[in-house]
Design goal:
Largest sheet of chain A: 7 strands, antiparallel
Number of strands of chain B: 18
Helix content of chain A: 25-40%
Radius of gyration of chain B: 21 Å
Low-confidence stretches of chain B: none
CATH topology of one domain in chain B: Uridine Diphospho-n-acetylenolpyruvylglucosamine Reductase, domain 3
Strand order of the largest sheet of chain A: 15-12-14-13-17-18-16
Oligomer: heterodimer
Strand content of chain B: 15-25%
Chain lengths: 497, 409
Amino acid sequence: MSIKMPAPDQAVLDRRSTIVAALRAIVPGEGVIDSAAEMLPYESDGLMAYRQPPMVVVLPDTTEQVSKVLKYCFEQGIKVVPRGSGTSLSGGSLPLADAVLLGLGKFKRIREVDFDNRVVVTEPGVTNLAISQAVAHAGFYYAPDPSSQIACSIGGNVAENSGGVHCLKYGMTTNNVLGCEIVLMTGEILSIGGKTAESAGYDLMGVITGSEGLLGVIAEITVRILQKPETARALMVGFAEVEAAGECVAQIIGNGIIPGGMEMMDKPAIHAAEAFVHAGYPLDVEALLIIELDGPTVEVDELIKRVEKIAQGCGSTVCLISNSEAERNLFWAGRKAAFPAVGRISPDYLCMDGTIPRGALPKALARIRELSVKYGLQCANVFHAGDGNLHPLILYDANQPGEIERAEAFGADILRCCVELGGVLTGEHGVGIEKRDLMPEMFSDIDLNQQQRVKCAFDAQGLLNPGKVFPTLHRCAELGRMHVHAGKLAFPDLPRF
Amino acid sequence: MDTLKVRDAKDVEQAVRAAIANEQPLEIIGHGSKRMIGQPMATNALLDLSALNSVKSYEPNELIITVEAGAPLADVKSLIDSKNQRFAFEPMEAAPLLGAPAAGTIGGMIAAGLAGPRRIQAGAARDHLLGAQAVSGFGDSFKAGGRVVKNVTGYDLCKLLAGSWGTLAVMTEVTLKVMPRPESERTLVLRGLDDATANRAMTAALGSPYDVSGAAHVPRSVLRDAVGALGGLGSPRTALTLVRLEGITASAVDRAASLANLLSRFGTAETIEDERSVAIWECVRDVEPFAAKGALGAWPVWRIVCPPAAGSALGECLVRETGGDVLYDWGGGLIWTATPPKPDAQAALVRQRAAAAGGHATLLRAPEEVRRQVDVFQPASPGVRALSERVRQGFDPKAILNRGRMTRG
């Protein structure tokens, strides 16, 4: 494990049996798990290279219990790691040896479906897909669709600000969440936002979304739902050169067309996916685009024609258009199975998640090819091409000494390249532990200190999910201090410009 | 009062550091178009950002623009318009409502968290602010967000900056998402609906798959003196319910027909197109019936956000109990309310009714003496208020920036 986590507090570990008993007094029955065997499923999340048994697992089933658990831990100075379904790809819910793992898995109820106000009020443990299923009979759905949507929880989506294939057109979680009930580390329960388009005062919902479980534990969420588009059709377009595919993406957007989804795969990804699901992908192309247009039939039919023309103008070698739901789903099947498909051809892989300006795509790909040679590891690339979000999959074999370290160094170089090209370290998977130590590539100490002062406003003791997101932890008292800038605070008067 | 006209971010840092040293709070202004919104401030110097007005980069194919905070909104809008793009969140021009002389800056637009009729489809300023450079009340320039549309790296400080009315940091540069301007727009107009029926019609429209980008209702009382109002669409004593569709022409036409059919149980819809449609939505966006120069120009104006389906019940109640007038946007989720002048702008009544409906109210327009008496922004619950104050202190512990603008006392 190359990422260092905060050193366990021996004094806390020594009190383990007392802590377990205290938690049992709050959450009776099977809600407290302390046997090593039963805690096994909680050792890791979607970032499976990292494992750590927690001190104890607690699974409350009421907000009041969550509040009491947090209050107890706050008073006792015990760290807490919140967890939804444990599908984080960045290690956001990786346990700590001396922390209570607080699972929200029992919060499985949808509390209210309100079609007139077009919202669903739900508990955080409900899966992303279950929300769409609960409103499907009336033609509605919840738009953000991370690829783990059958398993990932809506609480985890809020914590990570999850995206998905359709966020190009419909936004990320943050654009689709209206309010929440949040429990602070002190146990205080706050209600933020609601069924209204905006909340009063500072946009606390906005900063809670994507805060990776460091600010509070979400106990209830109000999300916006939308009517399903009347129809959706997809194009599968192949190109002999990646640059041409990149140009096609730019021209589609430049022509004012915002597809429901626009995905790109490179040759290794195409081959792996085709071998796995036989979607009929062309094997002789360097890049494949899957472009989905959704909306009223008349609109989709017209836009399909326009996109086809753009693709041909960019020199596409293959251009197929779906004429049925079955065909559309087949086009998508390979893309959706890209990760497991790569898993079949390699013992292990690392999935990266940088974002770049769309126009920098050919440059980024060229750089990834160079790095692939440098590190002697293969890389298959899938992208959310419409919004410049790259998912390079670095293939390695954990049983070969040194390969995981090489793979991680390769991944870090890719992310540095994203930042150099004007992009960011993570588009949708979160920083977690995985990208924590790369944060200084993108942010200065001043930037990071400002973020940590927000953390201090929510959790002054730093007990909630420590060791994630920030490479260096500062005490809040230190962060709040006003530093004198080389004597510059001593101005006698306001300056004039 | 001192005025500090800054030239760049370094100047802003220096001005804020000096202000910290002198414990001299600063009022941050661009054009000053929204200066009269908020509690009267305890500041004694102006930090004027209007000279920070350049466009740093504009990449139409990337759908992003980076501008300095003092750039005039009107100039930036015409620049992106020249590439057939726009800010999808449809920021209002506050000047006509407030009677302010200038049109406002990009920084002011973000700080005020503006959102127009298209909020129901495209969100608000918060949803389109991708990144910012800002100077905190520590006197330090920091970066929030990035310059790409998809980014979850670190806390989303942009969300806090949008709508913070300059109380957290001085934004010096912002990166915004722009969107393509659609080919066509169509607005369905239903005449003569009462508020409750209009609310139901808008709910039906917004619950349809036709991708509605505007849903507003102008009750008949609002149009009493304004025959020529609302882009020439108004007629005396006839309420107007407006539903907008945008997109490629074939699609807008097709959806307008389908939606007219869906709404036929509420009334017969006429369809207006393109320029006329644009004109009427500008009137809704800028709340023309309550304009400072109009008949109700001297009345206080409340901006009330509530669950959309609760809109008409709340609006009717406010009209009845305050003797005021209302205008509905966002399918009922936004109620502009003008109330007859009173020393307290009937704050207790408005807030109580709004809260009972699950909403909240901002006193957007009122004379200074009224704003001294009344909470301009909805007071939060004690816990949220305390948390918000801790967040504010994390940016500006000495309360140097726009001290007291968002909270009274």
